[in-house]
Amino acid sequence: MSPVDPDAAISVRGLVKRYGDRNAVDGLDLDIGRGEIFALLGPNGAGKTTTVEVLEGYRERDGGEVRVLGVDPARGGRRWKADLGIVLQSGAGDSQLTCLELLRAQAAYYPEPRDPAEVLELVGLSEKAGARGRTLSGGQRRRLDVALGIVGRPRLLFLDEPTTGFDPEARRQFWSLIRSLRDLGTTMLLTTHYLDEAEELADRVGVIAHGRLVEVAVPSELGGRGQAPAVVHWTEDGVRRTAETATPTAFVAELAARFPSEVPDLAVARPTLEDVYLRMIGEPRE
Amino acid sequence: MVTTVERPLPSVGSVCRTRAGVELKEFFRQRESVVFTLMFPVILLLVFGAVLDYDLGSGVSFTQYFMAGVIAAGILGASLQNMAINIATERSDGTLKGLAGTPMPKAAYFVGKVVQVFAVTLAIIVILLAIGALFYGVDLPSGSDWITFVWVAGLGSAACTLLGIAVSSLARNGRSASATVTPIALVLQFISGVFFQFSQVPTWLQTVAALFPLKWMAQGLRSVFLPDALAAQEPAGSWELGRVALVLGIWCVVGLVLCVRTFRWQDRIDR
After folding, report:
1. Domain count of the fold of chain B
2. Minimal C-alpha gap between B256 and chain A (Å)
3. Are A217 and A51 in contact (CB under 8 A)?
4. Tens of pLDDT along chain A (286 residues)?
5. Does A86 touch chain B (CB under 8 A)?
6. Residue B180 lies in a domain
C-alpha cells in the first residue's frame, strides 16, 4: 500500500494498538479526504473508539503510521489541536457554568473561534443560553457537546456516537446541522451505531471488525449492495410469494401482465445497509 | 500561490484568565462545595468558640488557640481536600479529557486551580478572622506576625494544593476521593492540635502528626496568634518556625514530584 498521505485529512497505515496480548487495532489502513464525511461502523470492541482516540491524540499507538491534518497525533501541539474539534462519547461533565459561559470559555482556547451565541443558535440551544450545563436534558447536553466541539472552527471534527439518546426529531435536526457544517467545508469522522445515520450523512462508510477495516464504500454500495439481487414480494392465489432477481424491473413488468389490475401486496426491496452490515461483521453472536 | 495567514494562538496569559474565571464560578456557584469547604471551618469556630471558652493561662482563651487550628484546617480543606475531590470528579466525568483535546495550554488548567484555592483560602481566613474578632474577642495578629501568617499560610497552601492534585490521581472518582480524603483530614485535625491543645495529644500520635503538613501549619499559625510565653507549651518548647518552613517546603517538593509523575488527563484505560 502507498505511504501515508500528508495532504489527506486523515491517513493511516498499518495502525496497531495492543491491550495486554490482544491487538485491539490490528493493522488498520484508512484515508479520509478533506471535506469528506466518513462514518466508521463496527460492533462494540471492534476497535472503533481506540482508533479514533489514537487519531485524536489521546492514546499512543504501538505500530503503524498516522497523519491527521498532516501531523503525527503523537506529536500534535496546540497549533494542531486548534484545527480539531472533538465530541467525545462520554461528553462533558457537570458544570455550574451556563451554556453561553461554557462556550465562551471554550472559544477562548482557539485562535479563530466562532461566535458562541451563533453556535448555540446552530445547535438549537439559544433558549438555553443562560441555563447551567448540569440542568440540561440528555439530548440538550449532547447538543452542547457538539457546540463545544465546533466553537473553535475546526477543520476536522470527530463525532463519537453523537446522537445516542436523541429522540427522532432531535436526530433529524442534528443531521441538518452536520450537513450545514459540511457545506462550510468541515471534514468529519463519525462513529455511530445507527446505520440510517451513516447512510443519511456519510460520503463513505468503513466497517471495522476485529481491529481491521473490512470494507470502505459509499453507503449504497457497501457489501456489494448495489449489485445484490433485489427481492420481490407479492401475493398470488392467496399465497405470499418471494423471488430474488437481478432484473426487478423486467420481473415486475412480467408480474403486472399476469394480473388484471394491481399486483396484490407488491414490494421490491434491496438489502438494507443493516442487512449487509450484519453480514459483514457476521460472527455468531451469543 | 496562495498563503494563508494563521491567526496566532491565544496567549497563555489570556487562557489562564479564562480558566481562573471558570474555576471561581465552578466553586462559588456549587452549594455543596461552598458549604463543605468554606462554611465548615466557620461552623467549627462558631460551635467551639461558644462551647470551649476556657482560659489556657497567661490570660489566653482557648478560642485564641483554636483560631490558629481552625485556619490551618480551613487551608487544608480549601487546598488538599478541595483539589483531591474536585480534580478526581473532573477526571471521572470527562471534563479533563475534554480539555486535553483542546489547544488550552495545560499549565492554564493548574493556574486556574491555584487561583480557585487562593480565593477560597482568602475568603475562609477573612471570614474566620472577622468572626473571631467580632464575636469571640480574638486578638488579631500585629506587626511582623502578619509576615509569618502570610508565609505559613502560603507555603502550607502550596504544599497541600500539590498534594491534593497528586491524591486526585489515586482516586477512582470524585465520590471515592471524598470518601477517602475526608476521614483522613478529620483524623489529621484531631491529632494535629486543631480541636484541642497539641500538648494533650499522646506523644506517639504527636510523632505521627509531625509527618504531615497540618501539624506544622497549625504550629506556625499559633506563633502568629498566641503570645510568645505559650511557646513553652509546644513539644520543642519553641515555635520552631525554621522547621515549619522546612517540613512544608519538603511537602511542596514531594507533592510536585507526585503530581508530575501521577497526573492523568483521563481515566485509566483498563482494557
Report:
1. 1
2. 24
3. no
4. 688 888 899 999 999 999 888 899 999 999 999 999 999 998 888 889 899 999 999 999 999 999 999 999 999 999 999 999 999 987 777 889 999 999 999 999 999 999 999 999 888 889 999 999 888 888 888 889 999 999 999 999 999 988 877 778 878 888 988 998 899 889 999 998 888 889 899 999 999 988 899 889 898 887 777 777 888 889 988 889 888 888 888 889 888 888 888 888 898 888 777 777 877 777 544 3
5. yes
6. yes
Q: How many domains does chain A have?
A: 2
Strands A212-217 and A239-245: unpaired
Read off the CATH number of the domain in which A99 is found: 3.40.50.300
Residues A213 and A238 in one domain: no
Chain B residues near residue A56 by CB distance under 8 angstroms:
101
Range of the domain at A248: 229-269
* Structural contact between residues A82 and B103, judged by C-beta atoms closer than 8 angstroms: yes
Candidates A21, A88, A94, A109: best to mutate against B (most CBs of B within 10 A) is A109
**Which residues are A240's β-sheet partners?**
A235
Q: Are residues A254 and A179 in the same domain?
A: no
Whether chain B has a CB inside 8 Å of the CB on A259: the answer is no
Task: Name every chain B residue with its beta carbon within 8 A of the beta carbon of A154.
Answer: none
- For residue A146, is it within any domain? yes
DSSP state of B47: H
Does B6 map to a domain? Answer: no
Please state the ipTM of this predicted complex.
Answer: 0.88
Nearest to B93 among A78, A93, A110 (CB): A93
- Note whether A88 contacts B: Cβ–Cβ < 8 A: yes
Q: Please indicate, yes or no, if residue B268 is contained in any of the structural domains.
A: no
CA–CA gap between residue B177 and residue B164 (Å, rounded):
10
Whether residue B220 lies inside any domain: the answer is yes
Rounded Cα–Cα distance for residues A184 and A115 (Å): 15
CA distances to A43, A193, A274, B20 from A286, rounded to whole Å, are: 13, 19, 19, 51
Taking an 8 Å cut-off on Cβ atoms, the answer to whether A93 and B14 are in contact is no
Using CB atoms, which residue from B9, B97, B271 is nearest to A82? B9
> Which amino acid, one-letter code, is at B78?
A
Q: Are A236 and A264 in a shared domain? A: yes
**What residue numbers bound the domain in which B35 lies?**
12-262
